[in-house]
Write a structure and sequence with these properties.
By secondary structure, this protein is mostly helical. The protein is built from 6 helices and 2 strands. Helix 2 crosses helix 3.
């Protein structure tokens, strides 16, 4: 599929969307689910019970996440490898959620999906090391 602007959700994610541990109950960003619910992916920038999801919120959240990952793991590469729990070259959503919670950056499932969609720089439905570093180097 064609690459789109990094902040525009992909209309055709890879099968399965963001990689998930099958036992998790964390919901993930899904353009199909958004369409089925009548919400556009852009409507993910709406308020939730846990806060506002917009570029300001994302900047603060990713700055905090990056700083804490570097403090805990020493490098973004080591942090990425720790979150690649399936050892398939992609960050698993549950691992991302666990790290954010461990750093007291607890987020709702909608907010987690928003963060994951933004970390998926090339919008292919997965967060690769290249995606992760491309986004994190900006923070």
């Amino acid at each position: 599929h064609q690459h789109q602007h990094p902040n525009t959700p992909c209309s055709q994610p890879s099968p399965g969307g963001y990689l998930l541990d099958p036992s998790t109950e964390v919901s993930v960003f899904s353009p199909a689910a958004s369409a089925a619910s009548g919400r556009s992916p852009a409507s993910n920038r709406t308020s939730t019970h846990a806060g506002i999801m917009d570029d300001g919120w994302l900047t603060i959240t990713l700055n905090s996440l990056k700083r804490r990952l570097e403090q805990r793991f020493g490098s973004l590469r080591t942090a990425f490898l720790a979150m690649d729990t399936g050892k398939q070259g992609f960050i698993q959503m549950q691992a991302l959620a666990n790290q954010m919670e461990a750093f007291n950056l607890g987020v709702s499932s909608d907010q987690l999906s928003y963060v994951a969609a933004r970390l998926d720089y090339d919008q292919d439905g997965r967060i690769s090391f290249q995606d992760f570093t491309e986004v994190m180097r900006k923070f």
